[in-house]
Design a protein that fits this description.
Layout (H helix, E strand, L loop, with lengths): L5 E8 L2 E7 L9 E8 L7 E2 L10 E3 L11 E9 L2 E2 L3 E2 L5 H4 L6 E6 L3 E9 L10 E8 L6 E6 L5 E2 L2 E9 L5 E12 L3 E3 L6 E5 L4
Antiparallel strand pairs: 1-2, 2-5, 3-4, 3-6, 6-7, 6-8, 9-10, 10-14, 11-12, 11-15, 13-14, 15-16, 15-17
Protein name: INLR1 protein
GO molecular function: cytokine receptor activity
Organism: Sylvia borin
């Protein structure tokens, strides 16, 4: 009989709820894993996760399998090799709504004659596109600590594929020189959460000659 998987953890990372684990001692290289989950409002009702049945990898993305983002869930995993199965090992409880960890958005800059269009996007699971995300957008002159903070709300109907897009237009008539932009994602659940700021993107504005 196989020993149980080790270090079974339900974690939230970059907008996703992921179960991770490590192989037990003495596992053969072709061992596979099967994952199920239960929600706190339906205890002892373990739901199958079709895309995480007999998988070779040691993680399972549960985000879009969850029946609710507002109820705590936990998951369990077992190892399978031929006719041998390990005992199930359970994770701790978590819920997406209050535990979600955000990733910084990716900024795209489109410089026009007297304005700049800044688009913020980030990979989102399709199942969470109904939730409302916000961004803090920082703009400052390179070499200066005087940052101008702007805030804009993502439009729920503006997205392409799995990437949410939202654009803010900034009048650059009075800006001259090298300016940098950085943004972080915001989400208000039980408390206000935010991601780290994205890597700065800098452009030269109204440069003559």
């Amino acid at each position: 009989r196989l020993l149980p998987p080790q270090n079974v953890t339900l974690l939230s990372k970059d907008f996703a709820m992921i179960l991770t684990w490590a192989a037990g001692e003495g596992y053969p290289p072709d061992v596979t894993y099967t994952v199920r989950y239960e929600s706190q409002d339906r205890l002892d009702k373990w739901m199958k996760v079709p895309h995480c049945k007999n998988i070779p990898r040691a993680f399972c993305n549960l985000t879009c399998a969850l029946s609710s983002f507002y109820v705590k869930v936990r998951a369990r995993v077992k190892a399978v090799w031929g006719q041998s199965q390990s005992p199930w090992v359970k994770s701790q409880f978590k819920d997406y709504y209050s535990d979600v960890e955000l990733a910084p958005p990716v900024l795209t800059l489109n410089v026009r004659e007297n304005s700049i269009h800044v688009s913020a996007s980030f990979p989102l699971p399709a199942c969470v596109e109904s939730l409302t995300w916000k961004y803090d957008l920082n703009l400052w002159e390179a070499g200066s600590e005087d940052k101008v903070i702007l805030c804009f709300v993502s439009q729920q109907k503006k997205y392409e594929g799995y990437f949410r897009k939202d654009t803010v237009t900034i009048n650059t008539t009075a800006l001259r020189g090298n300016y940098c932009f950085s943004a972080r994602a915001l989400y208000e659940s039980i408390s206000l959460k935010h991601s780290e700021f994205s890597q700065p993107v800098c452009v030269l504005l109204n440069h003559k000659g």
